[in-house]
Specification:
Elements: E1 18-21, H1 25-36, E2 41-45, E3 56-59, E4 62-65, H2 74-83, E5 94-96, E6 99-104, E7 110-114, H3 117-128, H4 130-155, H5 163-170, H6 175-179, H7 187-191, H8 198-205, H9 224-230, E8 234-236, H10 239-253, E9 257-260, E10 264-270, E11 273-279, E12 284-286, E13 289-292, H11 296-300, E14 323-334, E15 341-344, H12 349-357, E16 367-371, E17 389-398, H13 409-425, E18 429-430, E19 436-439, H14 441-447, H15 465-468, E20 479-481, H16 492-516
Parallel strand pairs: 1-2, 1-13, 2-9, 6-15, 13-20
Antiparallel strand pairs: 3-4, 5-8, 6-7, 10-11, 11-12, 14-17, 14-18, 14-19, 15-16, 16-17
Helix pairs in contact: 1-10, 1-16, 2-16, 3-4, 4-9
Length: about 525
């Protein structure tokens, strides 16, 4: 291992059994679990915060949640904290949401979905009639069946290599259930069989965007997301960033070490196996196990050094998930009673995704608004006081072209005007000018290189997409992947499950390596670092 510093470092003081690159949700979960199992763990994060995409952005001194906002599958995190010897509620303040989301198509057509399923049926009946209620019941039953088929066999397990592996896990006696997952038909097509009302078809098709994909290309398997939400949407005081901080504190409590504000220059190998990392500041850490919580494409493109480029395959531009334009705002609103989660639909859903496919920001976009002071805990202190402003995160889907297209100031202004006009069409008036910051795919590419700004890794397009995501193991012994760009997929609970899978895989491989090869030890691999000048 070559270091820039002109000194010899004893590895006993510069070693870690496991090095984790990136403090996103997946990396934080891996760190907490491995530390709780007694492994020495060091997390290296190039930014100043824990959470990755779960970050905070400040607008006029107001802290706006800058990443994911919807929290589901609480049981995933209950299990993680319990496995690390703690209780989730000792680290975050959390409560169930009564309203899952408010939806609007114009100033007249509005529909709330509730945690109470009977109340949902009542609202859908008033909105679209009895036939739509019957379709909703069938849809809900089918989404539950898909979830139950894939929960343990796909989402909470290591990546199956082929559909045949998945069928085997499901049980050969249930081979007919595989076709019931609807892997070969698009979400949009199958939804048409449940919902004669096109507004409801559009509403439930939006679930494909939860993993950055088009409903016209995604398999209808993604109907399971509806059941995930039906199991409960939760509100966290401080947002997902508070969850990330809780995971960091959980890891630290069990002995994990975090180094912020520095990056990994390269991963080093010895005899074809991971032997440690060299940091951008010249420090070296010997380690037999490295988990990368970066997008796997960054490994393939050489951002973690030339020796590991062949460990994974990069996601090609055409296969990238959606990116977004995201406005972080602190402004006044009027004429529309916002809930925490709000969706304002475009007038032509198919045209919206056709424009994105052509590398364009939609002229008539669907818009998500997270009103972060709605249902906020009083003890946090609400922003919507005095001047009437409230914290908003406003999201419009965009192409993942941040590495090949520059969003100019003129275009940002145009997109802002389109966004404000589209919301006004549905009745929501925003303060003009709106105090805000706008993030584009350019900023997301800078934060998460080799993605083009794609926020969800590989798009879930086609039946094979889920089998093409990288799993925890790579082609290089000792190097693993975790995060929303790896199996089982995008979203906060899926990223957490990826971290859990990576931790479990490292634990198994550590035991196997120690037993059969006598390479890895609890103190790391002993290795002498060469003396090099500053140009080494």
């Amino acid at each position: 291992m070559i270091c820039k510093r002109q000194i010899t470092i004893e590895m006993s003081s510069m070693s870690s059994e496991v090095v984790i690159i990136g403090a996103g949700i997946g990396g934080l979960v891996s760190a907490a679990l491995l530390a709780a199992r007694g492994h020495s763990v060091t997390v290296i994060e190039k930014e100043s915060w824990a959470g990755g995409k779960a970050r905070s952005v400040y607008v006029d001194d107001a802290r706006v949640d800058g990443g994911p906002t919807v929290f589901t599958l609480r049981d995933v995190f209950d299990e993680i904290f319990q496995s690390a010897g703690e209780n989730l509620e000792n680290f975050i303040s959390i409560r169930p949401a009564e309203v899952l989301a408010r939806h609007a198509w114009n100033q007249e057509d509005r529909l709330d979905l509730y945690a109470d399923q009977m109340r949902c049926e009542d609202q859908i009946g008033l909105f679209a009639g009895a036939k739509s209620v019957e379709g909703y019941r069938r849809f809900r039953k089918q989404s539950q069946k898909i979830y139950e088929s894939l929960n343990q066999t796909m989402m909470r397990a290591s990546k199956p290599k082929t559909p045949f592996n998945l069928i085997y896990r499901m049980g050969l006696s249930k081979i007919s259930d595989f076709s019931g997952l609807h892997p070969y038909r698009s979400l949009w097509t199958v939804l048409g069989e449940f919902f004669p009302d096109q507004r409801l078809r559009q509403l439930f098709a939006r679930y494909s965007t939860y993993c950055g994909s088009s409903p016209f290309k995604s398999p209808a398997t993604l109907m399971l997301i509806a059941h995930v939400e039906a199991l409960g949407v939760w509100l966290i005081d401080g947002g997902i960033a508070a969850l990330a901080d809780g995971l960091k504190r959980l890891g630290e409590k069990n002995g994990a070490t975090f180094r912020f504000g520095t990056s990994v220059d390269r991963i080093e190998l010895k005899k074809g196996r991971v032997s440690g990392v060299v940091l951008s500041d010249g420090d070296c850490i010997a380690s037999s196990f490295v988990i990368s919580n970066a997008d796997p494409s960054s490994i393939h493109n050489g951002l973690l050094g030339p020796s590991v480029r062949k460990a994974v395959t990069a996601t090609k531009g055409k296969n990238r998930s959606l990116s977004a334009l995201v406005w972080y705002a602190n402004g006044r609103t009027s004429n529309f009673p916002l809930k925490r989660h709000n969706v304002f639909f475009s007038e032509d859903y198919q045209a919206e995704f056709s424009q994105i496919e052509k590398d364009k920001v939609p002229d008539n976009p669907t818009i998500y608004v997270c009103a972060q002071d709605q249902n906020a805990s009083d003890r946090l202190g609400k922003t919507k006081t005095g001047n009437g402003r409230e914290r908003l995160q406003v999201i419009v889907n965009a192409p993942a072209n941040g590495d090949r297209y520059n969003y100019s100031a003129k275009e940002k202004e145009r997109c802002t005007r389109v966004m404000i006009k589209s919301l006004a069409r549905c009745g929501l008036e925003l303060e003009d000018p709106l105090p805000h910051r706008l993030a584009t795919p350019n900023e997301f590419e800078k934060l998460w290189p080799s993605t083009g700004g794609a926020l969800y890794g590989r798009a879930t397009h086609g039946w094979a997409a889920s089998f093409l995501r990288p799993g925890a193991r790579t082609k290089i012994p000792g190097l693993y992947c975790a995060g929303g760009s790896t199996h089982p997929g995008a979203g906060v609970p899926m990223a957490a499950l990826s971290g859990q899978i990576a931790a479990n895989t490292v634990t198994r491989d550590h035991t196997s390596t120690k037993k059969f090869h006598q390479v890895a030890t609890d103190g790391g691999t002993s290795m002498q670092l060469a003396k090099m000048d500053d140009t080494g």
